[in-house]
Design brief:
The chain has 47 residues and is an alpha+beta fold. It has a single domain (4-46), classed as 2-Layer Sandwich (Macrophage Migration Inhibitory Factor), CATH 3.30.429. It has one helix at 14-32; strands spanning 4-9, 41-46. This is 4-oxalocrotonate tautomerase-like domain-containing protein.
Length: 47
C-alpha cells in the first residue's frame, strides 16, 4: 500500500484536483501494479 503526497497549487479548481489525483493513481496502478481500489493520497496546497 504505497502512500502518495501531492502538493497542488493554490487556486486549482476541484475538478482539476480530482483529475490530478486520478492521474497519479492510474500511473501507480500501471507502473507498479497497485490494486485499483488501493487509493492512499494526501493532497495539500502548495504556496
Amino acid at each position: 500500500m504505497p502512500f502518495t503526497r501531492v502538493a497542488i497549487p493554490a487556486g486549482t479548481s476541484p475538478a482539476h484536483k480530482a483529475a490530478i489525483a486520478r492521474g497519479v493513481h492510474e500511473a501507480m496502478v500501471a507502473a507498479i501494479g497497485i490494486p485499483e481500489d488501493d487509493f492512499f493520497q494526501l493532497r495539500g496546497t502548495a504556496a
